[in-house]
Protein backbone atom coordinates (compact mmCIF):
# COMPACT_ATOMS: atom_id res chain seq x y z
CA UNK A 1 0.00 0.00 0.00
CA UNK A 2 1.31 3.45 -0.91
CA UNK A 3 1.89 5.81 2.04
CA UNK A 4 -0.80 8.42 2.63
CA UNK A 5 0.30 11.78 1.27
CA UNK A 6 -0.74 15.41 1.63
CA UNK A 7 -0.75 17.09 -1.76
CA UNK A 8 -0.62 20.80 -2.54
CA UNK A 9 -2.87 22.78 -4.83
CA UNK A 10 -2.81 23.46 -8.53
CA UNK A 11 -3.85 21.90 -11.81
CA UNK A 12 -0.37 20.53 -12.40
CA UNK A 13 -0.52 18.81 -9.04
CA UNK A 14 -3.91 17.29 -9.85
CA UNK A 15 -2.59 15.91 -13.12
CA UNK A 16 0.43 14.47 -11.33
CA UNK A 17 -1.73 12.87 -8.64
CA UNK A 18 -3.85 11.21 -11.30
CA UNK A 19 -0.80 9.85 -13.10
CA UNK A 20 0.85 8.52 -9.95
CA UNK A 21 -2.27 7.04 -8.35
CA UNK A 22 -3.59 5.48 -11.54
CA UNK A 23 -0.17 3.94 -12.16
CA UNK A 24 -0.46 2.23 -8.77
CA UNK A 25 -3.97 1.04 -9.59
CA UNK A 26 -2.92 -0.24 -13.00
CA UNK A 27 -0.03 -2.15 -11.43
CA UNK A 28 -2.36 -4.49 -9.57
CA UNK A 29 -2.90 -7.93 -11.07
CA UNK A 30 -6.33 -8.82 -12.38
CA UNK A 31 -6.71 -11.39 -9.62
CA UNK A 32 -5.85 -8.86 -6.90
CA UNK A 33 -8.17 -6.25 -8.39
CA UNK A 34 -11.04 -8.76 -8.60
CA UNK A 35 -10.59 -9.89 -4.98
CA UNK A 36 -10.39 -6.35 -3.62
CA UNK A 37 -13.35 -5.23 -5.74
CA UNK A 38 -15.49 -8.01 -4.28
CA UNK A 39 -14.53 -6.86 -0.77
CA UNK A 40 -15.35 -3.23 -1.57
CA UNK A 41 -18.70 -4.07 -3.14
CA UNK A 42 -19.60 -6.33 -0.20
CA UNK A 43 -18.88 -3.44 2.18
CA UNK A 44 -20.98 -1.08 0.04
CA UNK A 45 -23.89 -3.54 -0.08
CA UNK A 46 -23.72 -3.91 3.71
CA UNK A 47 -24.37 -0.20 4.28
CA UNK A 48 -27.79 0.96 5.41
CA UNK A 49 -27.79 3.45 2.51
CA UNK A 50 -27.57 0.63 -0.02
CA UNK A 51 -30.07 -1.58 1.77
CA UNK A 52 -32.65 1.21 1.95
CA UNK A 53 -32.05 2.62 -1.55
CA UNK A 54 -34.90 2.41 -4.02
CA UNK A 55 -32.69 3.73 -6.83
CA UNK A 56 -29.01 2.98 -7.43
CA UNK A 57 -26.93 5.09 -9.82
CA UNK A 58 -23.84 2.97 -10.48
CA UNK A 59 -20.96 3.32 -12.91
CA UNK A 60 -19.91 0.33 -14.99
CA UNK A 61 -16.25 -0.39 -14.28
CA UNK A 62 -13.66 0.24 -16.97
CA UNK A 63 -10.06 -0.94 -17.18
CA UNK A 64 -8.57 -1.05 -13.66
CA UNK A 65 -11.45 0.61 -11.81
CA UNK A 66 -13.12 -1.07 -8.85
CA UNK A 67 -15.43 -3.60 -10.46
CA UNK A 68 -19.10 -2.85 -9.81
CA UNK A 69 -20.96 -5.67 -11.58
CA UNK A 70 -21.64 -7.67 -8.41
CA UNK A 71 -23.39 -4.68 -6.83
CA UNK A 72 -25.35 -3.95 -10.02
CA UNK A 73 -26.49 -7.57 -10.26
CA UNK A 74 -27.46 -7.63 -6.60
CA UNK A 75 -29.46 -4.41 -6.91
CA UNK A 76 -31.30 -5.75 -9.96
CA UNK A 77 -32.08 -9.03 -8.19
CA UNK A 78 -33.61 -7.08 -5.30
CA UNK A 79 -35.87 -5.11 -7.61
CA UNK A 80 -34.09 -1.80 -7.13
CA UNK A 81 -34.10 0.59 -10.07
CA UNK A 82 -30.57 0.68 -11.51
CA UNK A 83 -29.28 3.51 -13.68
CA UNK A 84 -25.84 3.67 -15.30
CA UNK A 85 -24.02 6.64 -16.87
CA UNK A 86 -23.75 7.51 -20.53
CA UNK A 87 -21.59 10.34 -21.90
CA UNK A 88 -23.50 12.53 -24.32
CA UNK A 89 -21.32 15.30 -25.73
CA UNK A 90 -19.99 17.38 -22.83
CA UNK A 91 -22.52 16.00 -20.38
CA UNK A 92 -23.33 12.71 -18.71
CA UNK A 93 -26.76 11.26 -18.04
CA UNK A 94 -28.00 8.09 -16.35
CA UNK A 95 -30.26 5.51 -18.02
CA UNK A 96 -32.08 2.57 -16.48
CA UNK A 97 -30.88 -0.93 -17.21
CA UNK A 98 -32.68 -4.20 -16.50
CA UNK A 99 -29.69 -6.47 -17.06
CA UNK A 100 -26.08 -6.23 -18.22
CA UNK A 101 -27.40 -7.07 -21.67
CA UNK A 102 -28.67 -3.50 -21.84
CA UNK A 103 -25.17 -2.01 -22.10
CA UNK A 104 -22.85 -1.69 -25.07
CA UNK A 105 -19.45 -0.20 -25.82
CA UNK A 106 -19.63 3.58 -25.95
CA UNK A 107 -17.52 6.58 -24.95
CA UNK A 108 -13.81 5.65 -24.89
CA UNK A 109 -14.78 1.97 -24.99
CA UNK A 110 -16.72 2.18 -21.72
CA UNK A 111 -19.83 0.03 -21.49
CA UNK A 112 -22.89 2.30 -21.42
CA UNK A 113 -26.70 2.01 -21.60
CA UNK A 114 -28.21 2.55 -25.02
CA UNK A 115 -29.62 5.93 -23.98
CA UNK A 116 -33.29 5.34 -24.72
CA UNK A 117 -35.22 8.48 -23.86
CA UNK A 118 -37.88 6.66 -21.84
CA UNK A 119 -35.21 5.14 -19.58
CA UNK A 120 -33.44 8.40 -18.67
CA UNK A 121 -33.12 9.27 -14.99
CA UNK A 122 -35.28 12.36 -14.52
CA UNK A 123 -34.43 14.91 -11.79
CA UNK A 124 -37.10 14.65 -9.11
CA UNK A 125 -37.76 10.98 -9.86
CA UNK A 126 -36.38 9.94 -6.48
CA UNK A 127 -38.38 12.39 -4.39
CA UNK A 128 -40.07 10.46 -1.63
CA UNK A 129 -37.60 7.60 -2.06
CA UNK A 130 -33.94 7.00 -1.39
CA UNK A 131 -31.23 7.17 -4.01
CA UNK A 132 -27.62 6.02 -3.83
CA UNK A 133 -24.84 6.93 -6.25
CA UNK A 134 -21.65 4.86 -6.50
CA UNK A 135 -18.84 7.25 -7.42
CA UNK A 136 -15.64 6.28 -9.23
CA UNK A 137 -12.52 8.42 -9.00
CA UNK A 138 -8.81 8.55 -9.59
CA UNK A 139 -8.19 9.46 -5.92
CA UNK A 140 -10.03 10.17 -2.67
CA UNK A 141 -8.79 11.51 0.64
CA UNK A 142 -9.57 11.13 4.34
CA UNK A 143 -11.90 14.15 4.19
CA UNK A 144 -13.89 12.35 1.46
CA UNK A 145 -12.76 14.73 -1.27
CA UNK A 146 -12.85 13.16 -4.72
CA UNK A 147 -10.63 13.63 -7.73
CA UNK A 148 -12.10 12.44 -11.01
CA UNK A 149 -10.42 11.89 -14.34
CA UNK A 150 -10.23 15.53 -15.40
CA UNK A 151 -13.41 15.83 -17.48
CA UNK A 152 -15.77 16.94 -14.70
CA UNK A 153 -18.71 14.77 -15.76
CA UNK A 154 -19.80 13.80 -12.25
CA UNK A 155 -19.29 17.27 -10.76
CA UNK A 156 -21.42 18.84 -13.50
CA UNK A 157 -24.06 16.14 -13.25
CA UNK A 158 -24.43 16.58 -9.51
CA UNK A 159 -24.46 20.36 -9.86
CA UNK A 160 -27.33 20.09 -12.37
CA UNK A 161 -29.32 17.31 -10.76
CA UNK A 162 -28.34 16.93 -7.12
CA UNK A 163 -31.37 18.77 -5.77
CA UNK A 164 -33.68 16.58 -7.85
CA UNK A 165 -32.34 13.28 -6.59
CA UNK A 166 -34.25 13.24 -3.32
CA UNK A 167 -32.26 11.74 -0.46
CA UNK A 168 -29.27 10.94 -2.64
CA UNK A 169 -26.19 9.60 -0.89
CA UNK A 170 -22.77 9.49 -2.53
CA UNK A 171 -20.48 6.54 -1.85
CA UNK A 172 -17.02 6.82 -3.37
CA UNK A 173 -15.27 3.50 -4.00
CA UNK A 174 -11.57 2.99 -4.61
CA UNK A 175 -8.67 0.72 -3.79
CA UNK A 176 -6.59 1.58 -0.72
CA UNK A 177 -3.70 2.68 -2.96
CA UNK A 178 -5.97 5.48 -4.23
CA UNK A 179 -6.77 6.85 -0.78
CA UNK A 180 -4.60 9.82 0.22
CA UNK A 181 -4.26 11.89 3.37
CA UNK A 182 -5.34 15.03 1.52
CA UNK A 183 -5.82 15.96 -2.12
CA UNK A 184 -6.49 19.38 -3.68
CA UNK A 185 -10.18 20.27 -3.79
CA UNK A 186 -11.90 23.18 -5.50
CA UNK A 187 -15.25 24.72 -4.55
CA UNK A 188 -17.00 22.93 -7.41
CA UNK A 189 -15.64 19.49 -6.46
CA UNK A 190 -18.32 17.29 -4.92
CA UNK A 191 -17.42 15.41 -1.75
CA UNK A 192 -18.55 11.86 -1.17
CA UNK A 193 -20.70 11.14 1.88
CA UNK A 194 -18.70 7.95 2.42
CA UNK A 195 -15.55 6.43 0.92
CA UNK A 196 -15.04 2.67 0.90
CA UNK A 197 -11.84 0.77 0.17
CA UNK A 198 -11.01 -2.87 0.80
CA UNK A 199 -9.51 -1.74 4.13
CA UNK A 200 -11.40 1.33 5.29
CA UNK A 201 -14.79 2.99 5.48
CA UNK A 202 -14.52 6.75 5.89
Question: Could you explain the architecture of this structure?
Answer:
The structure is a single chain. The chain is of the alpha/beta class. The chain has one domain: NagB/RpiA/CoA transferase-like (Rossmann fold, 3-Layer(aba) Sandwich). The chain is 27% helix and 22% strand. The chain is built from five helices and eleven strands. Strands 3-2-1-6-9-11 form a six-stranded mixed sheet. A hairpin with a 5-residue loop joins β4 and β5. It is globular, with a radius of gyration of 16 Å. The mean pLDDT is 90.
Helix content: 25-40%
Known CATH architecture: 3-Layer(aba) Sandwich
Instruction: Give the strand order of the largest sheet, numbering strands 1, 2, ... along the chain.
Output: 3-2-1-6-9-11
Rg, nearest Å: 16 Å
Distance between the termini: 17 Å
Order of helices and strands: HHHEHEEEEEEEHEEE
Write down the domain tally: 1
CATH-derived topology: Rossmann fold
> Which residues sit in consecutive blocks of at least 5 with pLDDT less than 50?
none
Q: How confident overall, as mean pLDDT? A: 90
Largest sheet: 6 strands, mixed
Q: Looking at the structure, what is the overall shape? A: globular
CATH class: Alpha Beta
Strand share of the residues?
15-25%
Number of helices: 5
Considering the protein shown, what is the CATH homologous superfamily?
NagB/RpiA/CoA transferase-like
SSE-based structural type: alpha/beta
Number of DSSP strand runs: 11
Short description:
This protein has 202 residues and is an alpha/beta fold. It is built from five helices and eleven strands, in the order αααβαβββββββαβββ. The longest helix has 16 residues, at 11-26.
Amino acid sequence: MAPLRIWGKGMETKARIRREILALRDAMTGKERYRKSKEIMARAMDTLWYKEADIVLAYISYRSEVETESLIQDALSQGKKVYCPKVEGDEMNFYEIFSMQDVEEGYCGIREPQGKKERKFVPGLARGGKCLMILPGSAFDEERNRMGYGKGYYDRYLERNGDGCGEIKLIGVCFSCQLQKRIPADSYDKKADMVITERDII
